[in-house]
Specification:
single chain; 252 residues; alpha+beta; 3-stranded antiparallel β-sheet
Length: 252
């Protein structure tokens, strides 16, 4: 096998460098491109998704559910907390970012997001390791277009398509893995409606305390600069993925 990052490059999947033992990009990753030789020299690198998608179960319950319900794929990567389960995508248009099934919430990372590539080193020192790599590109299944992402019990509402439309925070509550994503949508909607920053802060605190299960610590909203970055982000469609990279809430 070639260097892992080079393998992705050879199959037209974008890769880009990450900072040493970090999940943080070392470049502007969305538009990044490099040569095959450059990709082969990457140590820590990210894999830009779109033609590929990754299911990211990170606890016993979600891993067990994926084993029972998802199509078999040979491309499995052990992470610091679970697995990255790779699939090909026929189209990424309108594909949700989460699976809501049987009371579980599981990340389904795709277009506009990235994952840390196999062979890279997690901040904890754990190495992202492919379970095996003897298969071919065509052996990776295409994720079923008719897959049921939501079992109807989660009370989810789709995000408004355009910034400025009112966003309704999910009444059934928001679980781990998507708390920052939903709070981001709410915050951008409040700003577009003309809220002052101080008033928006109060609404975000209320939504977090009453709608997130469990609520995020204040330190993960305010002390690390997330609120300020989300507030200052240029207006864009609310349906667009996290503009700071999924790394911002990948460890939550």
């Amino acid at each position: 096998m070639n260097a892992p990052a080079q393998w992705f490059h050879d199959h037209n999947v974008g890769v880009f460098p990450l900072k040493t033992r970090s999940k943080e990009p070392a470049c502007k990753w969305l538009g990044y491109s490099c040569s095959r030789e450059h990709a082969a020299r990457f140590v820590n690198y990210g894999v830009r998704l779109g033609t590929m998608a990754v299911v990211d179960p990170d606890c016993h319950d979600t891993i067990a559910w994926c084993e029972r319900n998802l199509p078999d794929t040979p491309f499995l990567v052990r992470t610091a907390r679970g697995f990255h389960v790779y699939y090909r995508l026929a189209s990424s248009d309108g594909v949700p970012k989460f699976l809501h099934r049987d009371g579980l919430t599981i990340e389904f990372k795709n277009a506009g997001q990235y994952v840390v590539g196999p062979g890279s080193v997690h901040p904890s020192g754990a190495v992202y390791t492919a379970v095996e790599w003897s298969w071919r590109w065509d052996d990776i299944p295409v994720f079923p277009a008719n897959f049921l992402f939501d079992d109807g019990s989660c009370g989810r509402r789709s995000a408004p398509g355009v910034i400025g439309e009112r966003y309704e925070f999910p009444t059934a509550g928001v679980g781990k893995g998507e708390r920052h994503a939903e709070l981001f949508k709410l915050l951008r909607s409040l700003k577009a409606q003309g809220y002052e920053q101080a008033d928006a802060r109060i609404v975000i605190v209320f939504a977090n305390e009453n709608g997130c299960r469990p609520p995020l610590p204040d330190s993960q909203i305010f002390d690390n600069g997330w609120f300020a970055r989300a507030w200052g982000n240029p207006d864009r469609p609310l349906a667009e993925p996290n503009p700071f990279g999924d790394d911002v809430w990948a460890t939550l």
